């Protein structure tokens, strides 16, 4: 009797370990698939700080946010853009599906552009804050609103913080927040 209790106890421990490990493993596999399909090669290979930040964000966001970003019927697509060098004039990005990839884009897609200036900051936490802010706009469907307002910006920031990313929000504000009137239409508004 005692032995069987020990076995049951061990089984419970094992099932707990697997229950904790599998979601991470599943998330990592889903991230790999998502990156291959919906994130530009330049972000992954030429924007080293942004690449680290994007990985961190994809690992850390709540499940429902991850599902929305990687929803293949309407995925978020990340592309790079340039404010310096000859690539600032024009460039192309190609997304190629591999054999076995399921159909996508039945409901469109949501495009997030990440600039080379973002990659100039080496602190991934700050970059994560920016990426999270852009994802928050998608979750809140702000592009479907017919107007821009500073209230929408503040709502996106509040959502990022509600997900538990206070530190990322503050770092993003420190590095990338508007520094003077004219930088942003929301310069004087509080977050
Ligand atoms: Zn915004």
Write a structural description.
The mean pLDDT is 90. With 191 residues, the protein is mostly helical. The chain has one domain. The protein has a two-stranded parallel ribbon with strand order 1-2. 55% of the residues lie in helices and 6% in strands. The chain contains 8 helices and 2 strands, in the order ααααββαααα. Bound molecules: zinc ion. The site of zinc ion has 4 residues, from helix 6 and helix 7.
- The Cα radius of gyration reads 20 Å
- List the total number of helices: 8
Strands ordered across the widest β-sheet: 1-2
SSE string, helix = H, strand = E?
A: HHHHEEHHHH
What is the strand tally?
Answer: 2
Secondary-structure content class: mainly alpha
- The average pLDDT is 90
> Helix amount, in percent?
55-70%
List strands and helices in order, with pairings.
Layout: H1 2-38, H2 41-45, H3 48-60, H4 63-69, E1 76-81, E2 110-115, H5 116-119, H6 124-139, H7 150-162, H8 166-176
Parallel strand pairs: 1-2
The protein binds zinc ion.
Zinc ion binds at residues 133, 137, 153, 156.
Task: Describe this protein with a few key phrases.
single chain; 191 residues; two-stranded parallel ribbon; 2 strands; 6% strand; binds zinc ion
């Amino acid at each position: 009797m005692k032995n069987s209790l020990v076995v049951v106890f061990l089984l419970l421990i094992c099932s707990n370990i697997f229950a904790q490990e599998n979601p991470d493993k599943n998330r990592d596999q889903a991230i790999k698939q998502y990156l291959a399909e919906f994130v530009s090669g330049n972000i992954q290979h030429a924007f080293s700080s942004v690449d680290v930040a994007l990985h961190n964000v994809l690992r850390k966001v709540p499940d429902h946010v991850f599902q929305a970003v990687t929803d293949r019927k309407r995925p978020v697509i990340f592309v790079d853009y340039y404010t310096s060098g000859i690539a600032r004039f024009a460039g192309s990005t190609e997304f190629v599906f591999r054999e076995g990839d399921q159909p996508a884009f039945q409901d469109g897609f949501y495009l997030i552009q990440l600039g080379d200036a973002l990659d100039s900051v080496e602190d991934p936490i700050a970059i994560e804050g920016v990426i999270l802010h852009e994802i928050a706009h998608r979750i809140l469907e702000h592009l479907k609103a017919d107007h821009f307002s500073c209230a929408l910006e503040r709502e996106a920031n509040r959502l990022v913080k509600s997900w538990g990313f206070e530190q990322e929000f503050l770092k993003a504000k420190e590095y990338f927040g508007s520094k003077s009137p004219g930088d942003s239409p929301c310069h004087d508004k509080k977050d």
